[in-house]
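Help: read this over?
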Amino acid sequence: MIRRGTDEDFEEIFNIINDAAMAYKGVIPPDRWHEPYMTKEELQTQIEDGVKFCCYVDDDEIIGVMGIQDKTDVALIRHAYVRTKQRNKGVGTLLLRELIKESTKPVLIGTWQAADWAISFYEKHGFRRVDKEEKNRLLKKYWAIPDRQVETSVVLVDEKYKSSREIHTKISI
């Protein structure tokens, strides 16, 4: 079952993020890795900045979380994690579909360039990487991350983003 995250889920969301993020250890640049991967303060700041989490619950246990953040003209998928022991069972797919099903805005996803599994997952669901120049522009506009993280990340976009870019290009000509 998928449901909206609540204040009472904070601790479990925190635990799932840090459990699942262990997959990045030794993969992302060492200067970007730290433990915990996300502190409670960082998670609280993300929530205060408008990240709304959905939780996948199985047998009264939250096993996956994924957030969405409204950024006026786009929506960002943020912090998509499934407990290590529950991976590859379709939980991420169900969460992603739930978050994007009603979005009328273009959906953007940022992830680590070295996280091939995450990039493949999003590409399997119709998202496509943008080029380096567009990636840098989008990360600086919509995310609050350090320049080093911008350098080592990718951005994937959905079809609505591509369509909106084509419309804006035609209007400006």
